[in-house]
Design brief:
Low-confidence stretches: 1-6
Largest sheet: 8 strands, antiparallel
Number of helices: 0
Strand content: 25-35%
Helix content: under 10%
Mean pLDDT: 87
Distance between the termini: 25 Å
Radius of gyration: 15 Å
Number of strands: 8
Order of helices and strands: EEEEEEEE
Length: 135
């Protein structure tokens, strides 16, 4: 686990430059389908996973930490408070997700289309308008 030795606290955001070695044995598939190196960090008592591009930039941020919340939603809460069938998105091979606010999305079970009682699997940040995983 990295304790922000990779990036200053004010750089914990999408597109931020990471200092040091980014090579990792672990990879994560981001919504674009790219497999990127993973850095695990702990920030303000919450664990996050960062996907780092070849250009050493944060491309994706996610957490499954039970202490994390967005708009009073936590991991394993049902999505009834934000459910709107027209806002459910699906990426084949990656899964279902919904936007929570201007920064965060919820990741949902990839095997079946979500309903009001579907549970939040993780929270993530990702720039969907950016086509190149190596920006």
């Amino acid at each position: 686990m990295v304790l922000f030795s990779c990036c200053p606290q004010n750089k914990f955001q999408l597109g931020a430059q990471i200092n040091g070695d980014i090579s990792s044995r672990n990879k994560i598939m981001i919504p674009s389908g790219a497999l990127l190196d993973v850095k695990e960090i702990h920030y303000k008592n919450i664990s996050y996973t960062l996907a780092i591009s070849e250009n050493k930039k944060i491309k994706y941020i996610s957490t499954k930490d039970s202490k994390f919340s967005v708009e009073k939603l936590k991991i394993n809460d049902d999505i009834s408070k934000i459910f709107d069938e027209t806002k459910i998105k699906y990426i084949p091979g990656w899964g279902y997700y919904m936007k929570v606010n201007s920064e965060w999305y919820v990741g949902l079970d990839f095997r079946m289309k979500p309903t009001k009682s579907s549970k939040i699997g993780w929270f993530f940040k990702y720039e969907f308008s950016e086509p190149n995983p190596n920006w």
